[in-house]
Specification:
mainly alpha; Arc Repressor Mutant, subunit A; 3 strands; single chain; 173 residues
C-alpha cells in the first residue's frame, strides 16, 4: 500500500469536508421538507375538519329553519284556536242569556233581548242587526222598536233623540 502524498491527502480531506458539508445541507433541507410536509398534512386535516364543521353548520341552519317554520305554524294554529275559543265564549254568553231565568216584570222574550243586547249606546238599526245576527232572524225592525220601547217603559233602557234618530242606552239592573 502506498502512502499518499500530502497534497493528495489534503485534497481528499477537502473533498470529504465538502461532501460532509453537502450532506449536512441536504439533511437540513430534508428536515425542512419533512416539517413542511407535516404542516401540509396538518393543514389538509384542518381544512377537512373545517369542511365538516361547515357542513354541520349548514345542517343546523336548515334544522333551525325547519324549527322556525314549525313554530310559525304552531303560532298560527294557536291563533286559530284562540279565535275559536273566543267564538265559543261569545256563543256561551249568548246561550247563558237565552237560557237565563226571565227578569222580574219582563216576558221571557223581552228578558232574552235585554240580556243579549250589548251595553254600548246604539241606534235601533244596529240593535236590530245585532239581534238578527245572534239568531232572531224573523224579528222585524218594527217589533224590535216596540220591544225597546217596552223595555224603556219598564226602566231597562233609556232613549235619546239625536238628529231624528233614536239612540238607546242599556240600564244595568
Amino acid at each position: 500500500m502506498r502512502f499518499m502524498k500530502d497534497p493528495e491527502k489534503d485534497q481528499l480531506k477537502r473533498l470529504v469536508k465538502a461532501c460532509m458539508l453537502e450532506i449536512s445541507k441536504l439533511k437540513m433541507d430534508l428536515k425542512k421538507c419533512s416539517e413542511t410536509n407535516q404542516e401540509c398534512k396538518k393543514a389538509t386535516q384542518l381544512q377537512h375538519k373545517i369542511e365538516k364543521k361547515e357542513e354541520r353548520i349548514k345542517e343546523l341552519e336548515n334544522f333551525l329553519k325547519e324549527k322556525d317554520k314549525t313554530i310559525a305554524d304552531l303560532k298560527n294554529d294557536l291563533g286559530d284556536k284562540n279565535d275559536y275559543i273566543n267564538d265559543l265564549e261569545e256563543i256561551k254568553t249568548y246561550f247563558e242569556a237565552l237560557t237565563a231565568k226571565p227578569k222580574r216584570d219582563l216576558t221571557s222574550f223581552q228578558s232574552q233581548v235585554y240580556l243579549l243586547l250589548p251595553p254600548e249606546k246604539s241606534n235601533t238599526h244596529k240593535m236590530h242587526a245585532f239581534i238578527k245576527k245572534v239568531g232572531f232572524n224573523e224579528l222585524s225592525y218594527d217589533n224590535m222598536f216596540h220591544i225597546l220601547r217596552n223595555l224603556e217603559r219598564k226602566g231597562y233602557f233609556k232613549s235619546y233623540q239625536i238628529n231624528e234618530e233614536t239612540i238607546w242606552e242599556k240600564i244595568q239592573k
